[in-house]
Amino acid sequence: MPHIEREELTPEESDQLLLPGGRPPLWKHMESIGAVGLQQREGVPSCSQKGLPCPSDSSELVLECLQQFKVTQTQLQQIQTSLLGSMEQALGGQASPASTVRMLPTYVGSTPHGTEQGDFLVLELGATGASLRVLWVTLMGTEGHRMEPRSQEFVIPPEVMLGPGQQLFDFAAHCLSEFLDAFPVSTQDLQLGFSFSFPCHQTGLDRSTLISWTKGFRCSGVEGHDVVQLLRDAIKRQGAYNIDVVAVVNDTVGTMMGCEPGVGPCEVGLVVDTGTNACYMEEARHVAVLDEDRGRVCVSVEWGSFGDDEALGPVLTTFDHALDRESLNPGAQRFEKMIGGLYLGELVRLVLAHLAQRGALFGGCTSPALLSRGSILLQHVTEMEDPLAGAARVHAILQDLGLSVGASDAELVRYVCTAVFTRAARLCAAALAAVLSRLQHSREQQMLQIAVATGGRVFERHPSFLSILQETVMLLVPECDVSFIPSVDGGGRGVAMVTAVAARLAAHRRLLEETLAPFRLNREQLAAVQAQMQEAMAKGLQGEASSLRMLPTYVRATPDGSERGDFLALDLGGTNFRVLLVRVTAGGVQITSQVYSIPECVAQGSGQQLFDHIVDCIVDFQQKQGLSGQSLPLGFTFSFPCRQLGLDQGILLNWTKGFNASDCEGQDVVCLLREAIGRKQAVKLNVVAIVNDTVGTMMSCGYEDPRCEVGLIVGTGTNACYMEELRNVASVAGDSGHMCINMEWGAFGDDGSLGLLRTCFDANVDQASINPGKQSFEKMISGMYLGEIVRHILLHLTSLGVLFRGQQTQRLQTRDIFKTKFLSEIESDSLALRQVRAILEDLGLPLTSDDALIVLEVCQAVSQRAAQLCGAGVAAVVEKIRENRGLEELTVSVGVDGTLYKLHPHFSGLVAATVRELAPRCAVTFLQSEDGSGKGAALVTAVACRLAQMDHV
Length: 953
Ligand code: G6P
Ligand code: BGC
Ligand code: BGC
Hints:
Layout: H1 11-18, H2 26-32, H3 55-67, H4 73-91, E1 104-105, E2 117-125, E3 131-140, E4 150-155, H5 158-161, H6 165-182, E5 190-196, E6 200-204, E7 207-210, H7 227-238, E8 243-249, H8 251-257, E9 268-272, E10 276-283, E11 296-300, H9 318-326, H10 336-339, H11 341-357, H12 368-371, H13 378-385, H14 390-400, H15 409-442, E12 448-455, H16 457-461, H17 463-476, E13 480-486, H18 492-516, H19 523-541, E14 551-552, E15 565-572, E16 577-585, E17 588-596, H20 600-603, H21 607-625, E18 633-638, E19 642-646, E20 649-652, H22 669-679, E21 686-691, H23 693-702, E22 708-714, E23 718-725, E24 738-742, H24 760-768, H25 776-781, H26 783-799, H27 820-826, H28 832-842, H29 849-884, E25 890-897, H30 899-903, H31 907-918, E26 922-928, H32 932-952
Parallel strand pairs: 2-5, 5-8, 9-12, 12-13, 15-18, 18-21, 22-25, 25-26
Antiparallel strand pairs: 1-11, 2-3, 3-4, 6-7, 9-10, 10-11, 14-24, 15-16, 16-17, 19-20, 22-23, 23-24
Residues 571, 573-575, 637, 639, 693, 696, 713, 715-716, 783, 897-899, 932-934 line the site of 6-O-phosphono-alpha-D-glucopyranose.
């Protein structure tokens, strides 16, 4: 951390530093009032040497005194860098060395929308020192005009500021009811925003623990306590009104949020009143204490305590040390004591007393008032410093302090005021520059354009404070384009905004929870799905009415490794149509494949067109692989529900997943393929087997792991197969051995058995699909539908005003515009929010960071339900196998494929967790299939060929 160096300056430099803006340099002034020869100071004999009365000595004294208040640009840069270092240290949660600035998250996550509406009570405590203010603020949203808040100020008696905490909060509650007694407002559900301007650890928008008092407050029994609870208790004790304290904010936050709509949003709030502090919108992921890596959060810097580790040593004057020693909190808030309005008057008093006691002012006379602490207030200094008020006012103030004011005294006093003020403004600028540099860092923006809301009586009553601050900020961070926006009515409106935001967020949170609650399935519901599926499996196997067709696949065994040969394989029904050459040798399986597209018009055209297209792809592949004219055994992965009558006979029951080619349902698709081959001269293909992609996946993984007896697909569609005991398969003869059953679980619930879980969004998606009423389970789980479910939820939340400020956009009303792959991207742990923004901005959606967080929660809820339902299905299957074999414990592997399962960051983990929960007696390993089901189809073909050879032997 760079140290702030002590610095010597040339007189010119020092004057420029001391008196920006037009007043003649002190030495010039001294000269003008006869303190001649200041300029000639170096080597020029002084007036005393000339035996004249020595104004120069007093001016020397004044100059030497005021020199202490000079802070050079280098020192300001060092303060800026040092404060920035402390800020980043505190943000990072670095414990040692402890940072002197606290960087307190405020739970305000967004700047006002301007849509905030309603009547709010605001209680301000601590911003303006010994007074508190109650306001009634009416927010009119975007349409309405600005309503002037009604407010009342109450002076806090000193004994209340220094007494027991309960007394202070009772005083506040009393002021609230006195205010409400005076104003006939409807006392229904009074929502209050509490502006509490002291350093607090916030743990929520309405939970805040006081760390330490500042600015003249010192009540007992409050530090370490939740001030919202203390206020709620006091309001209850008062018992006059039922007031709900909805939010507590720091005054800087109120100031930032009080920015006039349309000029902002202001993302920095800066207060210089009795105390000083700033807040700004930090990227949440940079705030270590918040385990949140998404969106922004307003951080209260609490820069008043900067330098409490002596870092400010070189720029602290003897007057600063004197003031600190006499203060209520010596050693603390050192930076604030150089800037805050509570201290500036005292600093001026200490300097004037010092100069008077050394004869440089007021003829060397002091007065009891001049020597008593707090006798010069901020008000006095601003008036004395005010260029318009002129010397007359200065005289009046000094005379009130019992001082006899000499000719030059008034001007010298004004120089003292200016020196103290100018330093305060420049130090404040250095601190603000540190905040702006931090924003550049956290947003990785070199060129930062930002609006800073300013609040506090130092700004209101001392116009040059802002101009000095602005000038200095431009010097220190020239690449930042900073606009300063005075906050209206001292942040009261801002606090009401936060309260409105809190109330809105709370209302939105309630609406979001209500909307997503049906997606949050509990263990009972999932166990019920598992049980219903097991029941439907048993019925389906027995050929009874069931939404699970439980189709025998005529695959009786998983590969045993003795398969050999070259095979062609087709893989139709997933995202891509692939033609594969699979070479099975002792050394393993080599696969060469090519992806071909199935245009929607072919998938939804005529069956002949579809199968001719398939054969064209095969021919193209054979040519490319130099296989033309060869008649290799072919395995056909056909990922649709087929009633198989044999390994190479499959009657298509119905299309799914957006396919709808005519004249296919009810047909043997192997025949359709052979007919298409027949139509294409000179192509000889030997179609040996047709398998479902679940079977192909199980076989493909079974080749590596013989315990793999379940195949699972979670891709465009979803389905599962498993090795069932032949004795349980009513439609196939034989009681021994196994038969792989294609469950076609996509249709589970088509009998209404999932009605309790079905949401209105599922109904919207189903009605808009080409097969309404069909594939209910699939439409709650698979990739073809999750994006659409999310889109419908987003439309619903937008209609409730929870999202996108209630603005429906054409784009979001477009079917399939919210791709399921967006869920995988949005839920990825690393860059989620930026992803969310990028994706949603591409969709032309105007979003805030709250919106982005809500979209993320919607995606999480939809994908979580899908994964849990899928897990409940797998639990039903493995439990069935375990019970089939009468085993206490079952160890089994599940071969899995499908884009959603493979690409979604959490899906596979949630499926496994649900299976562990619902089938604890099954040790299930999920094997992601590397080569897809094409390899599996080739292996099924290889097994069939081996069995056929054995039959011929
Ligand atoms: C792999 C398999 C296909 C299966 C698909 C399902 O690609 O080889 O047989 O149909 O996965 O996943 P998808 O996400 O493509 O629908
Ligand atoms: C407090 C801050 C407050 C500032 C301005 C400081 O003393 O610690 O919380 O924002 O004064 O009122
Ligand atoms: C089909 C199944 C297939 C699954 C996965 C479903 O739509 O009906 O046969 O296994 O999608 O691709």
